Amino acid sequence: MAELKEKDKSNLAGILYLMKLALPEGFYFRIRLQKMVLLAKQEFSFPFSFNYESHYYGPYSEQLQSFVSDCVNNDYISEKIIEIGEESFGSLYSLTKDGEKILNSLSFPKEEFNKLDKVWTTYKDKPTELLVKKAKEMSGIKSKNE
Predict the structure, then answer these.
(1) Domain containing 72: what range?
(2) From CA 18, how far away is CA 93, in angstroms rounded?
(3) I want to staple 27 with a disulfide (CB 3.0 to 4.6 A). Which of 5, 66, 93, 105 is the partner?
(4) Tens digits of residue pLDDT in 67-91
């Protein structure tokens, strides 16, 4: 694996670690991932470098979505489209074996992973609406229609 820039290393370690925390069932829905990453950055000071802007469900990072797509394309994360209602679909993300190998090969400070443990235990069982509300409060970024 090529040498990563420090910000890319933080982003990769953070995303893969969140995926590991979500095992065995996986990480449900892009909206939750977007908000969980923002909350890790804003509330728990995890060094994610993604920038956010106003979108339909509050703060959204195109950089984060592109990064996750790259992780899917490199087989670090799997993305499965699941039906969540009549004609409504969402994404289920899971850490792959290759992703786990990459995560284990990254030398990354344990105290940074502890921040992700905190965001995960704080928000994993909370409804998506609460994550959206909290992300708006923490970032000051509203939804496009507000």
Answers:
(1) 6-130
(2) 10
(3) 93
(4) 999 999 999 999 999 988 888 888 9
